[in-house]
């Protein structure tokens, strides 16, 4: 901005050219003059009097907006007042001064960003190494076992001594090899080769497979349950159930590990695997179709089913440690594996539910009507499950177990031989009468009247003990349809006998007076 139309000259050597720009209210004045910088101007001592340009600098003032400038070295240097440089009150910087200032300003920000990134990385790494309660890590660890001579060798610089793994200590499973896989079970998949499809359900397929040990030239036979990508939720739930270390029990299928397969260029279809112990006898449903049970086998197998369910429902382990009770919610003969002709294990926990006391009714809102229809309890079919009482889920399991026990009892040759006249109903032994009473009380229409799994287990323990003490089975002739007092001598018998279904495939059939007392016996006798 040009100051004025006339020029003046400073006569004293110590004087400099100055300019005063002042705005009071709406009045603006500009004044140029010569001034001795040693003296105050507008109550301000000029600091920059060696510049060749008149760069206006704001000066604090209570009554006006005031700018001052001073210059020297050139004629009429205050003729042009420069407001676009330094009018914001900051000193002007030359281009060579900008880079150091920018660097100094950005270095602390970069350091903070690097530290934050490192802290986040360390946090994520620690979280992945931890094993959360409801979401287990990608791999589970196995118990180390010192292998016999001949299985210890070094390959690719890796010492396999002390690193070989035992996948099972179960003498009744087919996993009996002393050598095991030595891969890093946190990052790599087990070397498994699928052999044959042995089962298929709603959510997954079950394959018999070989777990190879190239270092030893041996392999283990395992069962691989393969879920498609759309059944991820079922795989995740079953994996979470198996992640509970307190679930381990002789009548619960042994879980080895879980893997995520596929999702790569070579195998684009993603699959989710559960690797478990393999039992060659298959599931209970197929086993009963081809085998007739003796009374001793029936007591042992039925007792093992009750023992497994009692462990699921219990809030403590056998050693007294606390555990979260679990409801199976899909208990049926095809979800029970025959471990030996006298023992079974429970499997398929895709619909299982952890009965955590910290959960609310809203958490169980969608947990009512699940499972297989023919094994569902009446309250499930009628949508009247009491979600406020966690015992309701256990009572549904007990009802399903009653139908499984009915299937097993119907394949028991308790008397022996064949009957020509099926219309004549021979009365079973006292043990069979107790079993019938137990089944009847377990499938009672009233959930509160049903036995608990622990009570059923006590009855089978009593039957087993009685079987050991007695070497003969007395067959009684029928005298009436009323239940004798000898059936009420076992523990947990103080329950009312309720209704029973007419067949396991129709558990919701209406009850008649004729079937309340003799229904189970008639069914078991006619099969």
TrEMBL record:
An example GO biological process term is: cellular response to growth factor stimulus
Residues that coordinate or bind ATP: 198-206, 225
The catalytic residues are 330
One term under GO cellular component: receptor complex
Parts of the chain that traverse the membrane: 98-123
Q: Which domain of life is it from?
A: Eukaryota
Subcellular location per UniProt equals: Membrane raft; Membrane
What membrane topology does this protein have?
Single-pass type I membrane protein
Query: Which cofactors?
Result: Mn(2+); Mg(2+)
Bias type Polar residues, positions: 479-489
Assign the protein's first listed, main location to one coarse class. membrane
* Entry's Gene Ontology molecular function annotations: ATP binding; metal ion binding; transforming growth factor beta receptor activity, type II
Region annotated Disordered sits at 479-527
The record's comment on protein family reads: Belongs to the protein kinase superfamily. TKL Ser/Thr protein kinase family. TGFB receptor subfamily.
Name of the protein this chain belongs to: TGF-beta receptor type-2
Please name the source species: Electrophorus voltai
What taxonomic ancestry is recorded?
Eukaryota, Metazoa, Chordata, Craniata, Vertebrata
